[in-house]
Amino acid sequence: MTDILQLLVDELTGFLGIHHWMEMFRSGDYQSLLTWKGIQGALSPLIPLLLLIELIRGSLYRNFKVENYKLPFLTYIFNRFVSRYLSISAVAYCIALFEEHALLKTTLTWYWFLYGYVVWELAHFVYHYLGHKVRLLWCLHATHHAPEDMNLSVTYAHFFLEAPYADVIRTTICLLLGVNPPLLFLIMFIDGTWGSFIHVGENLLKDGRLGFLNGILLTPSHHRVHHAKNPLYMDTNFCNLLPIWDKAFGTLQTEEKELPIEYGISRQIRRGHFGDAYFGEFYALFNDIRRAPGLKNKLLYVVMPPGWSHTGDHKTAKVVRHNYRQQATGEPVAQVS
């Protein structure tokens, strides 16, 4: 019984990110705050604290609904048991395999930091874009888009294999383009913190545009758009902090005041059902493959975008968005493949 209670305490303190603070309070030694590792540990409770504030504000304003947090919470619990070390192992493996093949060498200076961040955003864009455009990879990513409400708990809702897959792509690109491990870990920490923050819900931050920053950074407003299933908003805003590659590739989309966001995925799912949100896309892909005629069509269902059909009646995000725009302007709808 004692072991079970200790496990629960460890899981709770791990979720809240307060291990480092507890250790400092016990020892009375705060010298670690002068080190980069100590600063990282000290900032770890930031997102969990904001989540708690979000929950409290939602309760006070009577906007709190258990079903809005149920799915991310169940996903977090499940992932804690099956994927604790996979992502760390993937990063370590990539470093061992690709660091020596870097095209150039960087150091931990401000100008290489700027270079590294631009490279990181490119790597993140590539992983994220593929997660929306390759059906099998979408099966990994869809769990994160399944919640039908936006709040900070959504940052914990991921299929357990997505983080290793994402880190393999991002780490490999960064290492080959010369972002060395210390610089990479610094960028990953900053980007991970911001990437969690941009999931903040309206209970904590009503207007996610952040004023003038909306024209410079990828804000919570941009990321709310990314999580929307509205045709205009689908498959946009793939960057994490700096929207430079969304601007470069034409995937940047601002939040339109006259178009309220509808969260979730286009496939009808059972609201709050863990199994459907976690495994439903794999089941749908399996059925499409089973029904497809010929080996070529079966393979195409794996690699083509979600919504692709062997019949030619495509319902991909590109087609849906294109048709919506043409209908909105009153122009004849042209077929897009």
TrEMBL record:
GO terms for biological process: lipid biosynthetic process; membrane lipid metabolic process. GO terms for cellular component: endomembrane system; membrane. Pfam families: FA_hydroxylase. The chain crosses the membrane at residues 42-60, 81-98, 110-130. GO terms for molecular function: glyceryl-ether monooxygenase activity; iron ion binding. Residues 114-251 form the Fatty acid hydroxylase domain. It comes from the Bacteria. Its main location: membrane. It is a multi-pass membrane protein. Keywords: Lipid metabolism, Membrane, Oxidoreductase, Transmembrane, Transmembrane helix. It is found in: Endomembrane system. This is Fatty acid hydroxylase. It comes from Fibrisoma limi BUZ 3.
